[in-house]
Amino acid sequence: MKLYKLIFVANAFLLLISICLTNKEITLGEILINFTGKNIQLDLPDWVSYCIYFSIPILTTWYGTTKFYKLDPTEIKEENITEIESASSTFLPTFFAYVFVGLSINSVASLIFIYIAVTILCFCAEIYLYNPIFHVLGYRYYFVTAGNHKVLIMTKKEIKLREICEFKRIGQINDFTYIDIEK
């Protein structure tokens, strides 16, 4: 469970790397030269590198969704739910934080340090976990109040205003964040 949570958190911040590399106009050819020490010429337009940078977080997040069935399932019954509210707008400032932090990083060393620090801090903190790529994959975020507990649930269900439903099979990512794994 802890390893999955770490992967989940680390994956959520891959978008930060994509934004930073694109902002600094660092191409795949430059990365290859820096890692191999050889002058490898990739004759690709810059936009190809940028598309690959944004494809990686999407693909790794999608791959992570294929492993949700391994999470310990639980349920929240309709009679226990007192309120369901959209949480997507709550995380809008978090999304902008990805963008502004990614744009403000000055070097690759800073990027690596910030990425590791933010990942560790979010892993250790018991907070709601947010990954904006889930929106691209069709997931929506909802705060669900059941009894005295308010949790974040990611689901592909579209829940209307004041609609109450049940979640028959949800996987627990941490104490506050769950994913709907019902097929």
List its salient traits:
alpha+beta; six-stranded mixed β-sheet; elongated
What is the radius of gyration computed over CA atoms, rounded to a whole number of angstroms? 19 Å
- Helix/strand class: alpha+beta
Helical content class: 40-55%
Tell me about the biggest sheet?
6 strands, mixed
Q: How much of the sequence is in beta strands?
A: 15-25%
Describe what is shown at a glance:
It contains seven helices and six strands, in the order ααααββαααββββ. It has helices at 2-12, 14-23, 28-36, 46-65, 92-104, 108-124, 133-136; strands at 73-76, 81-86, 140-146, 149-155, 167-172, 177-180.
Overall description:
Helices cover 46% and strands 19% of the residues. By secondary structure, it is α+β, with helices and mostly antiparallel strands. Strands 1-5-6-4-3-2 form a six-stranded mixed sheet, with no helix packed on it. Strand 3 and strand 4 form a beta hairpin. Helix 1 crosses helix 6. The mean pLDDT is 85.
